[in-house]
């Protein structure tokens, strides 16, 4: 019954979206072409397959293929599944993703495993600026040795695979400038080695979990999404050097705990978030801060005198939007 309900819901939603797609996507008001309808249907199907945890690709391994170790065999399965999930690759970056030598694939980088230097593994993926369209299959969770995953400036959609929580060595995650949607990807909270998180310029929405600011991160970029939430009181727990919230819709006050970030914070950008509050005097404790941008909000009251204590400040912008 549950699966039937999902299918019915998905069918009705696609019909609704097709009816109004001309408004959302700028298509002709005289009706959709087959290509336009197919594009919308694919986007929505990917999103709902993600939501129900039912996405993946069937990959079989030719028994004639030889792999130096099981890690590279798993990487082969993951990358072949990803290739199947790609709809468009105009630069042919994945054209050479053929055969067992995964370390020779474009955008794939191998290195010795830190815990076993004699073992070669897939340690990084960089497909930045590839203009690739598709989604991320669950099989990517097989890349358990991955330290870097960079896919900015593509056209990937859907959400982030649940099995990303198997990437225990992942240090940098850059998903920026794509078409990911849905709620904040909570799976990033389960990545113990993560230091750099960049999910800006996507279509994520809803709240941002408080637990994000308890993680040992160095940089958080969540700007240019559709997040709407109260800035949590534990913001000051974060040890980041850079945090960018710009162009979302935040509520509440800038918390006094911001002053707790005095030893690490270099840049904080909160511009155009609809903030309606005063700035707490504790911001004067941010002695290492070089950039402080709260422009185009609806801040109340004067700037606190404690700003004069910010000895490293190079750029201050508090240009205000009229209330």
UniProtKB/TrEMBL annotation:
Keyword annotations from UniProtKB, A to Z: Cell wall, Cell wall biogenesis/degradation, Glycoprotein, Hydroxylation, Leucine-rich repeat, Repeat, Secreted, Signal
Main location (coarse class): secreted
Start and end residues of each Leucine-rich repeat-containing N-terminal plant-type domain: 78-110
Record's signal peptide: 1-26
Domain of life of the organism encoding this protein: Eukaryota
GO BP annotation list: cell wall organization
Pfam families from the UniProt entry: LRR_1 (PF00560), LRRNT_2 (PF08263)
Localization per Swiss-Prot or TrEMBL: Secreted, Cell wall
Cited PANTHER family: LEUCINE-RICH REPEAT EXTENSIN-LIKE PROTEIN 3-RELATED
Name the record gives this protein: Cell wall hydroxyproline-rich glycoprotein
Organism: Cocos nucifera
């Amino acid at each position: 019954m549950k699966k039937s309900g999902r299918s019915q819901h998905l069918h009705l939603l696609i019909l609704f979206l097709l009816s109004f797609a001309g408004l959302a996507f700028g298509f002709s008001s005289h009706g959709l072409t087959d290509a336009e309808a197919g594009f919308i249907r694919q986007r929505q199907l990917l999103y709902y397959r993600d939501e129900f945890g039912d996405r993946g690709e069937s990959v079989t391994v030719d028994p004639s293929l030889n792999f130096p170790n099981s890690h590279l065999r798993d990487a082969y399965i993951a990358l072949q599944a990803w290739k199947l999930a790609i709809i468009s690759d105009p630069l042919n970056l994945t054209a050479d993703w053929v055969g067992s030598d995964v370390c020779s694939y474009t955008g794939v980088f191998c290195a010795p495993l830190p815990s076993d230097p004699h073992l070669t593994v897939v340690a990084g993926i960089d497909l930045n600026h590839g203009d690739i369209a598709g989604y991320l299959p669950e099989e990517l969770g097989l890349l358990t040795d991955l330290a870097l995953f960079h896919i900015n400036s593509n056209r990937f959609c859907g959400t982030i695979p649940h099995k990303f929580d198997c990437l225990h060595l992942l240090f940098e995650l850059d998903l920026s400038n794509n078409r990911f949607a849905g709620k904040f990807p909570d799976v990033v909270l389960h990545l113990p080695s993560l230091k750099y998180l960049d999910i800006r310029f996507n279509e994520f929405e809803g709240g941002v979990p408080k637990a994000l600011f308890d993680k040992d991160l160095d940089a958080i970029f969540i700007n240019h999404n559709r997040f709407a939430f109260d800035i949590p009181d534990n913001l000051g727990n974060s040890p980041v050097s850079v945090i960018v919230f710009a162009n979302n819709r935040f509520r509440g006050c800038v918390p006094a705990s911001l002053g707790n970030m005095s030893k690490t914070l270099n840049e904080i950008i909160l511009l155009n978030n609809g903030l309606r509050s005063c700035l707490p005097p504790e911001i004067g404790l941010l002695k290492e801060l070089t950039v402080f941008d709260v422009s185009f909000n609806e801040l109340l009251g004067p700037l606190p005198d404690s700003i004069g204590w910010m000895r490293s400040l190079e750029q201050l912008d508090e240009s205000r939007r009229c209330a």
